[in-house]
Amino acid sequence: MENPWICLCICLLTGVLTSCTDALSCYECNVFVRTSRRQCEDPKGPLLKNNCVACMKVYTRSVMHNQWQQNVYNSFEARICMKSSEYAKSEGCYPVQTDGGYIIQCFCYTDYCNDATRQLVTWTSALVIISAFLFKKILCS
Predict the structure, then answer these.
(1) Distances from the Cα of 15 to the Cαs of 8, 11, 20, 128, 131, in angstroms?
(2) What CA–CA distance (Å, rounded) separates 45 from 36?
(3) What is the pLDDT of residues 82-122, one digit of tens each?
(4) CA angle 79-114-23, nearest 5°?
(5) Residue 66's pLDDT is what?
(6) Count of beta carbons in the 10 Å neighbourhood of residue 29
(7) Cα–Cα distance, 73 to 60 (Å, whole number)
(8) Mean model confidence pLDDT for the chain
(9) Carries keyword Cell inner membrane (predicted)?
(10) Is 95:124 a contact under the CB 8 Å cutoff?
(11) 12 pLDDT exceeds 70?
(12) How confident is the model at residue 8 (pLDDT cuts 50, 70, 90)?
């Protein structure tokens, strides 16, 4: 009688321990890996990655000076499975202004939290970032 109970306890304990791991599952797209990438708009959808320490979504907006007094605006979004916690930050979005635009990095820590339907930043944050960018361009012109 003791053998089945020991076996059951070991199985339950193993199940509990494996379900309590910190590894996340995230979406990944528009990231170059070994010279290829899966686009976020791919009909197959983004890649599903496991064993991530954080999920990340990066939105980049840049201005390229094509010709004299002509600008080309580019936008790019990537979803990333972070395998190292070295550059991870606490959950939330972090805008960074660059010389030719801005980058918004959003970190989250639940399974598949970097999907396309989640709002990247609040509209207020986006308005502040874009206003600061335009204000800088007006002052520096």
Answers:
(1) 11, 6, 9, 47, 51
(2) 15
(3) 999 898 899 999 999 988 899 999 999 999 999 876 444 44
(4) 95
(5) 79
(6) 20
(7) 11
(8) 77
(9) no
(10) no
(11) no
(12) very low
* Range scoring the smallest mean pLDDT among 55-64, 70-79, 113-122: 113-122
Q: Dihedral through CA 42, CA 120, CA 134, CA 136, nearest 10?
A: -110
Count the Cβ atoms, other than its own, within 10 Å of residue 59. Answer: 19
Which pLDDT does position 53 carry in this prediction? Answer: 96
| Sign of the Cα pseudo-torsion (111, 114, 120, 121, in order) | positive
In this structure, the dihedral spanned by the alpha carbons of residues 79, 88, 63 and 76, taken in order and rounded to 10 degrees, is 0
Residue range 25-36: mean pLDDT, rounded: 86
**Which residue in the block uniquely carries the two structure tokens 């874009």?**
130
Helix (H) or strand (E) holding 50: strand 47-52
Q: Which two tokens stand for residue 135?
A: 């204000």
